[in-house]
Design goal:
Layout (H helix, E strand, L loop, with lengths): L1 H12 L1 H21 L1 H5 L9 E2 L3 E2 L3 H27 L6 H28 L2 H5 L9 H11 L5 H25 L6 H18 L5 H17 L6 H9 L5 H26 L9 H32 L10 H10 L5 H11 L4 H32 L1
Antiparallel strand pairs: 1-2
Helix pairs in contact: 1-12, 2-7, 2-12, 4-8, 4-11, 4-12, 5-8, 5-13, 7-8, 7-16, 8-15, 9-10, 10-11, 13-14, 13-16, 14-16, 15-16
């Protein structure tokens, strides 16, 4: 039994596992929302939870997953990024510049594309939802790279991880200040105090218990400030002492929890489509526009951003050619988790606009995954 548990734990830590469990969650959500839309959308309508600490109302199962459990996923991401910064490829900070600038370029290109097409086609949803197509899906994109094989340069994975985290975090920050809710000034002050006091303490922690307590305190601070609590995971995971053995174990456990519980639950509550609302030319326009914005905007923006970083004297890792960067940019058109967070906040998960954007994001993710896999496999064969 213990041997089986260890094998399952090792399997859950593989990068493609997150992509697989996300895919299963999406498939179940699509089937459930088609077969019984009333029961499916009750996940975002029936109030099943509570007010926490007097200031955060977790009203539905959807809210509980999005505002609570997703912080665990972002904590796993933050822990991995922190490890790369202290012991991995990013110990040379110059190598982090290119993916971050590439992320900003991809965000800018997709946002501008959404605004431009929205005005050109007369679709207010694209104008209002200019931030929806910005983010890259960390779990799906890393899973695709893992499936391609080991002949790709190791630095490619770190480049993709850094880029995806940068635009995910930046997208959530944009959502915080442009969405339907607004930060509380008093809460922001308390959050700043927690971060300023807690960060140096977190770097000196020598066991997992206090690190988890710091994570919870940070999460509560974000919630009170009315800032997306999921960001607490990235912050808490990014500042702890990743040189310690206990931190490696904590990263493994959060990764397993994310892959086996958090991500499939998120896909389940966010991936359903209001199929009855999908009709008429408006729906088709939104779907096709989303696919075009994701694929073209990400490739042009990321390749352009990395090119600018290279001209400024901050090239990516020497093993990453321009060809590989463009192929990674195609992979970055895979976007599901944070884009759906953005769309759900702006339009509501049962709205026709959300349904069209959901379908467009799914379609662009499938196209990007297939095209990116084909391109990277060709590169892997030439490198091998």
């Amino acid at each position: 039994m213990a041997s089986l548990a260890r094998r399952l734990s090792r399997a859950a830590r593989r990068e493609y596992t997150s992509a697989l469990t996300l895919s299963v969650g999406v498939a179940v959500a699509l089937a459930w929302s088609a077969a019984s839309p009333s029961s499916y959308f009750a996940l975002d309508a029936d109030h099943v939870a509570w007010r926490l600490a007097g200031f955060l109302e977790v009203g539905t199962a959807h809210d509980l997953v999005v505002n609570g459990l997703m912080a665990v996923f972002f904590a796993a991401v933050g822990l991995e990024l922190s490890r790369e910064l202290t012991r991995g490829v990013l110990t040379r900070r110059a190598h982090a510049v290119a993916p971050v600038v590439g992320a900003l370029g991809g965000m800018a290109a997709t946002a501008l594309g959404s605004l431009a097409l929205g005005h050109l086609l007369g679709r207010a949803a694209l104008v209002r939802g200019w931030g929806v197509p910005m983010a890259t899906d960390v779990a799906f994109s890393l899973g695709v790279v893992a499936l391609v094989g080991r002949r790709l340069p190791p630095a490619l994975r770190t480049f993709l991880l850094t880029l995806a985290i940068a635009d995910d975090v930046a997208s959530v920050v944009v959502l915080t200040f442009t969405g339907t809710t607004h930060p509380r000034p008093v809460g922001l002050s308390v959050l700043a105090l927690v971060v300023v006091v807690g960060t140096p303490l977190a770097r000196r922690l020598d066991r997992a218990g206090p690190a988890v307590a710091f994570f919870v305190a940070t999460w509560l601070g974000f919630a009170w400030a009315n800032v997306d609590p999921a960001l607490a995971g990235v912050l808490a995971g990014g500042v702890v002492n990743t040189g310690a053995v206990w931190c490696d174990r904590l990263e493994q456990r959060t990764t397993v929890l994310s892959a086996t519980v958090v991500l499939p639950l998120f896909a389940l509550v966010a991936g359903g489509v209001a199929w009855r609302e999908l009709s008429g030319p408006t729906t088709l326009t939104l779907v096709l526009a989303t696919v075009a914005i994701r694929l073209v905007g990400k490739v042009v923006g990321i390749a352009g951003g990395v090119g600018l970083a290279r001209l400024a004297g901050y090239p990516p890792h020497p093993t990453l050619s321009t060809r590989l960067v463009v192929q990674v940019a195609v992979i970055c058109a895979i976007g599901f988790t944070v884009p759906l967070l953005f769309a759900g906040t702006l339009f509501g998960s049962a709205s026709p606009t959300y349904a069209a954007l959901d379908l467009g994001l799914l379609a662009s993710s499938v196209v990007a995954a297939l095209l990116g896999t084909w391109l990277l496999r060709r590169s892997a064969r030439s490198l091998g």
